[in-house]
Specification:
With 205 residues, the chain is of the alpha/beta class. The protein has one domain: Rossmann fold (3-Layer(aba) Sandwich). It is built from five helices and seven strands; from the N terminus they run ββαββαβαβαβα. A hairpin with a 3-residue loop joins strand 3 and strand 4. The longest helix has 19 residues. The two termini are 24 Å apart. About 3% of the residues have low confidence.
């Protein structure tokens, strides 16, 4: 897939105020400081489409970006560490889960994970929540430029082993990415293109 256009549409904290058109949506979510904004900018090949910051937890809204005029990339707030109050974190959790559970246009969630870290309980718990709520998702490992290929392979295997030990019947699609090297984005876009084709076929049948 070639990104011909990408533009910001709307930010809000209310799922009912999200765009009402029926085009497919793909949500990007992960722990704070996982490199989500950098990955979105890399995928769309636009430097400042999603705002990056040295301060974790900057994204605090549901942000919709219209891509190629026919699908939406949705930037969701990070979970985990963020310099916000407990009350704000509860609000984040509320509208994030509301979006993921109730947004009919959502085709797939891309769960971003820092490849440098050992399996984190908060990530594994979030995967479990997605599975229990039957929300399709893929795993996107970020910051692959920080490690050697052997270490990347070992760390990915650690996550797979953890998931299999938790009785997962099927492992989600896995992508290895580096925003610095602009790697992995094409594979994600190819996957989205495939899902878009399936969505269009179902919509008109």
């Amino acid at each position: 897939m070639l990104i011909k256009s990408a533009r910001f549409i709307i930010s809000n904290t209310d799922t009912t105020k999200c765009p009402q058109n029926l085009i497919p949506e793909y949500a990007f979510i992960g722990r704070s400081n996982v490199g989500k904004s950098s990955l979105i900018n890399s995928i769309c090949n636009i430097k400042n489409l999603a705002k990056t910051s040295s301060r974790p937890g900057k994204t605090q809204l549901i942000n919709h970006f219209l891509i190629n005029e026919n699908w939406c990339l949705v930037d969701l707030p990070g979970y985990g560490y963020a310099r916000v109050s407990k009350t704000q974190k509860k609000i984040f959790q509320s509208f994030i889960t509301d979006y993921l559970k109730n947004r009919s246009q959502l085709i797939n969630a891309f769960l971003l994970i820092d490849i440098r870290l050992e399996p984190q309980p908060i990530d594994l718990s979030f995967m479990k929540w997605l599975g229990k709520n039957l929300i399709p998702f893929s795993i996107v490992f970020t910051k692959a430029d920080k490690l050697k290929p052997k270490v990347i392979g070992r760390n990915v295997k650690d996550y797979i082993d953890k998931m299999l030990s938790s009785h997962w019947e099927e492992i989600p699609h896995i992508f290895i990415t580096s925003s610095l090297h602009n790697s992995g984005g094409k594979e994600i876009l190819t996957y989205i293109d495939k899902l878009n084709s399936n969505y269009s076929e179902k919509s008109f049948n």
